[in-house]
Amino acid sequence: MATLSEVEVEKLFSGAPQYFARSEGHYTGAPHPSVAFPWDEKLEIRDLTDHTQIEDRAWSCVTAWPHITRDIQGDRSAAVKASGEKRRAHFYPRCRERPNMLSMGGLEKGSVGYQAALELGVADALQEEQPGFDTLGARTPAVVEQRQKMLTSKDGLRHMEENLILEQLIKNGRRYSLQHPRERRLSSELYNELFLQILHPPTKVLDHRDPYSLSVQISALVKVLAAPNMWIDFSHVEWRIRLGQLLWGYPVEDEIDDRASAKAGDSATEIQEERYWLLIQILLACELLVRLDAITEGEELGVESIPPSEIHKFEKDATRCVKWSLHLARAWLENIEVIKTEQTESLPDPEPSGWLATLTKRMSIGASQHSHQHKGPVYAIKGRHIQRQVAGLTHFAKQLRWPDADYASKISDNCRSVTEGTPLNTPLSSPLGRTDSPRSSYFGGSDSEAKVRRMPSRRRKISAALHPSGWLSKSYVSGLMLPGEGLSHFLMATLLENDQAAMARLGPLANLCGGFVYCGKSFWSTACIVGRVLAAGKGSAECMGWVSSDIVPLGLGDGWVSIEVEETTEDALHVNKKARIWSKLSVEKESRVLGDADPSSVLPADFIIPFENIYRDRTPPRIRIVLKALKLWAPVDSVHTTPTEDLGITPLSEATSAPEIHTYPAALSFLVTETESGEEKEHTFSLAKDVSFVTAHPCVPSQHVKIMKSPSSPTIQQVDLSGHGIVGKNASVIGHPLHKYYTYTAVHISELLAKQDFSLEALLGDYSSTAHRPSLTPASKNAAKVLVIDCITGFQSLPQEHEIPLSPVLSRGESWASTNRSPQLSEVTSAEATSLPSPTSASTSADGNFYLESASKKMHSETRRRQFGSDVEILVRAFCAEKGWNALISRKRRGCLACAIREAGALGWKVIIRVD
């Protein structure tokens, strides 16, 4: 046989995703995973993704990656206007959340995408606490000393009153909303503001050509923001969530429960002081971002050139703390407005008027606790896009099918009453004291719990106590949120805090990484294994990290639950520097379309088209699977005594009678019936391991491939040529070829259920190369690399077309197909080959599901996700959770099995769930 040329290989693998992990540059951390179609130019192929699109602009803060939201209920004219306002160039720090939140919502409910799967091993949640900042108020002597040194140094920060900070933030807000004029006057104006009011001027000339340049100012700001032991490092997930607590929380009423290490601040003065330093950090970050935007726009317009040496210096000097401060500045300038009013008389503190009433908070001159008696300007901070955020909350409730049908009107009424009826010059009091708090300090937990060593965990456990006027709601409604997982917690907390009926039935104590039962439905965070498993059921709904299901735990009424689960041994070992993502060469080598072959000597006989329904010994029986119950065994502990790494977020005060949140082991039981014999058997699977599920990336079959049936073809040896099981000459084979480097074994789900004790290694080792490999090209190893769990064969509710393994033949030019013909050749004509489903004309099956993913259909991904799901899919996920197997979910007609096997190689995983 003739070898395949480079052009022929590209045509053969047209529409096949390829998997990468590449560094973005120096000082950018772990490599960035990506999926690309390097040999395709069509947008219908290049735009294919394995994750859903963010549906609402109110949720846009979830990621720092550039993206476009899909506002299905929004005002198109408003969206166009908003897009036009942001048309100018912006500076984007090369530092983003991990895992990538764009990839956290896989096309399969309860799953993630390829990028997020690789980044779980280097997730931001794996970081240890920031030294000196593991409390809300009190700071260590090292932090206090560094701040004093910065204020007394002549090459650092000037002392600023709070009113001056807020005045400058007002000025930055106006400047940010305007186009940046590229004039020398702007640099001089910014220079004077910075070095006469905020920083001390440099002690030496940094740029002899232009001592007042933006680069000089940027360098000075970076130096101050990069100072150690000075600022809150928002690269830590914990502080991204606590941000709102520093701005809107009240030390007498609030408490935070971090059972691993945190201790309480001592007084309100310490909290007030920390809020002051946070405002300075926000101001410095805004000053830096305004200058970076200006210089970026100048580069874009061609009126300014940035030397590569300055770029390299910035990337080196700008620490993760600096870059995350820039994310904070962007969130502030985009969403927060500082308003100044004149107070003419002393006003008493009024009672709170509603759950949104404390969205605006009085900030007056100085840090005195009695500043409300001062006659002078009063400053308030408020959200710029309250209506947008409230609409996003309504959208979230509808997507999760929240039981309260009138929820949307309640939100709108509350929002209207606040925006129309709360005067900005009226100081708002803290939440009323309550007599139902379980703890009397900021941080709960005993000393013995505090000594528990925090083990690396890719998913934090976050508990919270809710309050109608709490800072969790204010954080969401104001829009002041940083990229990462926090948005899912804010959404659910705000949803509950604005539903009095839900609060009354569920209680104020919540586990935002667990689940709860309410009104005959269960709601689960996707951080919980139960949520990721139940999401596979028909009728479940998923939105922004939460899953709703009609399946409720057996015998459990309304209330919150926590699930006992342990991380798999493999995942626990492969974190941080040992994570798979750092093995860039292995990721790409073990997923190459040509396997380990030399590109100059690739033979057609080196490939097969893999299928899941080929068995050596017997035909799998037709079975019926029905979910019987979700069971929670006896609670192992309660949230108050379990030494976990809980980060509680609670505006409560003392002595509450809130119900405890118990921690349960969870299991799912199923009734499996063999349809022919009628034999029934019950299976119960413990959801014991914190496994992950990944949506296999969609692919598009190449339009340049012919299908050949010939005894001389190496792959035809797997097919019965007598005609049984073959639809005929026009059989539709949808899939890409797989190189012999990849070995796999397919096991029907019924076979796994029939086994007792077995390991994944045993299943992979029980592999015969003759059953899957042609004799002309024997596999180099006798063990399979990947286990394919067949959840298709025997489960079709409607007759399906048979798909048979056949050899791919290129249809263009003097390919090996035209030069190696034999008398037995029977091939599909060019016209028949082009009649296969195309990316732009995907056909549908009898049940209404689409055959292929495409750019034009991708916009309806959320609707399509709800069409899938069955008890079979719940069972196989529960099975993997018991065994501790991370698994890819490959859906027939969305992606071929060959591409899923290669993606498993990229991830270093060994299990693929193949569903219909």
Automatic annotation (TrEMBL):
In terms of superkingdom, the source organism counts as Eukaryota
Compositional bias per record (Polar residues), positions renumbered to this chain: 416-429, 816-828
Enumerate composition-biased segments (Low complexity): 829-846
Q: Where is this region: Disordered?
A: 416-459, 815-847
PANTHER family listed in its UniProt record: HELICASE-LIKE PROTEIN (PTHR42345:SF2), TPR_REGION DOMAIN-CONTAINING PROTEIN (PTHR42345)
> What is this protein identified as?
Helicase-like protein
Natural source organism: Podospora appendiculata
